[in-house]
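not sure who needs this but someone in the group chat was asking about Leucine-rich repeat-containing protein 17 from Ataeniobius toweri so here u go. i didnt clean anything up, its just raw.
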Amino acid sequence: MVGLDMSNNIVKHLRPKQFLLSKELKLLNLSSNNLQHIDTAAFAGLLHLRELDLSNNSLQYFQYSVLEDLYFLRRLTLDNNPWICDYNIHYLVYWLKHHPSVSYTGLICSEPQEFRGWRVEDYVKTYNGECPVDKYMEGNETGQGAQEGSENEAQEVMGEMGEGQGQLLPQPIKEKERNAFEIIRLS
């Protein structure tokens, strides 16, 4: 068997080693199933799979290592899933980044509201964009200096990184109110 079309069924959950007896499978269509969860190792043994269609389901993210056995995958269709853009989505973007030969479609954030309609890749690029910038006191031998914490100093450090670097990343739809903060490092 080279292709398996399981579209338009009621598959909600893929369990580990679900396709272990289909090792020669090259095309797997699981679209339009209301699929909500894929266990790690669900695709174990599908070493020759080239196309995987997971479109029109209810997937929100992939667990770590769900895609690890798909060495020869060339096409991944992910359209019309309610992808939640939070830390859990990072694995999928990481995997795609490290498998540049995989052509994919359909990674659009649906939640949270401020990222709705964003490409998931753009969301991941901004994930660390709001983290405070550390500025250590020079001359501290332990490498753990006191944190000054003022907003002006954080902006100075950002300026040292290079003009315009922060402008290359997409901006959130809603501007967040900036609060003054202080970071205290505990050793």
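also The first helix runs from residue 90 to 97. if thats useful
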